[in-house]
Structure formats: C-alpha cells, structure tokens
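ok trying again, last paste got cut off:
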Amino acid sequence: VPEMKRLCGNAGVALIFEPGFPKTKLFGSARWIDGQRPVIQMSLRMKANDHFWWTFFHECGHILLHEGRDFADDQPGEPDAVEAEANAFATEILVGRMRLEQIVSIAPKSKSKVRLLAEELGIHPGILVGMLQHHEVIEFRHMNDLKVKIEFKKP
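nice, full thing came through this time. structure:
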C-alpha cells in the first residue's frame, strides 16, 4: 500500500483505502477534487486480490480516459460505454484483451494450467482465476484457494 500510494502520488493521483460502506456494493470510485486533482478510492469489498487489482486498474482507466468525470462503480447489470472502456483498460493492463480471449478459448480447468498461464502473463494466479470466473470458464466456487485474501490492518 505505501508503494502504491507513492507511485500514484508521483503521478498526481491520490489513492485512498476505506472499509466498504454498509449496504452498498461499492468496490471503488474515481473522482476529481475541484475538477483538478484525481482521486482513486477503494474498498476491500470482496477481500481478494483478483477484485483488488481489477478495481484498481478499472479506476485508473476512468482517471486516464474520462478526465474530470466522477465514478462510483457499484452499478449492477451490463456496463454502459464508459464503464466498458474502463473494463477494457483493466483487461489490457492485467493480461491484454487478445491474450485473455485466447485463454478463455482454451478454457484452462486445472490449477496447474492456471498457475502456468499466470506465470507466463506475469500476474498472480488468483487474478487469472477471477477473470476466468467472470468469463464463466470456471465456476465461482472453484480455485478460490489460488486467490490471496486481503484485509485492512487493524490499528
């Protein structure tokens, strides 16, 4: 977290971590203070590294692609065009759209294959598991042990 905050700060972006708000489905938000200073705010709603990194890069996409606009990403259903752009940005950063399409088409079903593909991609296997679950290649209850649980430190 300190390194992420430092790198974001060097790029002019404030990065804030907050516990999730009760009765919301909010993973993260991207907004601009006074229309000039970008802020990414993240919760640990699902408490796993796949959601964490997806949310981070999705919100980075909003900051880079949709300057001056505010987003709170908790909308159910199909994404609108702006959300789809942020999703595409996160996909491209994490694995690349073309590579993800290839991986989805081969439908890796074993942990060893997922680990091998993740190593080739330079990402944690849990991130790839989350993407494969999202694309319905594997069931949501499978391979969750490859994900890393994330929690806020208690003061």
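cool. The first strand starts at residue 14 and ends at 17. The two ends are 15 Å apart (CA to CA).
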